[in-house]
From TrEMBL:
Domain of life: Eukaryota
Keyword Protease: no
Keywords, in A-Z order: Oxidoreductase
The keyword Oxidoreductase appears for this protein: yes
Protein name (Swiss-Prot/TrEMBL): Dehydrogenase/reductase SDR family member 11
Family classification: Belongs to the short-chain dehydrogenases/reductases (SDR) family.
UniProt source species: Timema poppense
One function term, GO molecular function aspect: oxidoreductase activity
Length: 124
């Protein structure tokens, strides 16, 4: 953006609640990668502030979202993906896109740092 003279853009990282806590699931590598995204997002935000840039940086941190992620992981300990879907509440992908649209709709002087979205009743 800066190379092209854009100083009012918006960078949105789709992260995870796993980037802000340690989940009680066998997902330590996933959690570590999401913590890295959290740190990189904040580092980028601070770098842009130091440059007096008006580029905004936001991290959207969803909890359980109904996607292929659980299926792709196979089993999670003793719980298979079908049981996990049955036993836990999930957000829809639309819920996440609505958060992105909200973030983009804020006035230029508003910096949304983090949006954490979880379904009601999520255990984590």
């Amino acid at each position: 953006m800066r190379e092209r003279g854009v100083d009012d853009g918006h960078i949105i990282h789709i992260n995870s609640i796993a980037g802000h806590s340690i989940l009680n699931l066998p997902l330590h590598f996933y959690t570590a990668s999401k913590h890295a995204v959290t740190v990189l997002t904040e580092g980028l935000r601070r770098e842009l502030v130091a440059l007096n840039s008006h580029i905004r940086v936001t991290s959207v941190n969803p909890g359980n979202v109904e996607t292929e992620f659980v299926d792709a992981m196979g089993t999670m300990g003793e719980t298979n993906s079908a049981a996990y879907y049955k036993e836990n509440p999930f957000l829809a992908s639309r819920d996440i896109s609505d958060a992105v649209i909200y973030t983009l709709s804020t006035p230029p002087h508003v910096q949304i740092h983090d949006i954490t979205i979880k379904p009601i009743g999520e255990k984590f």
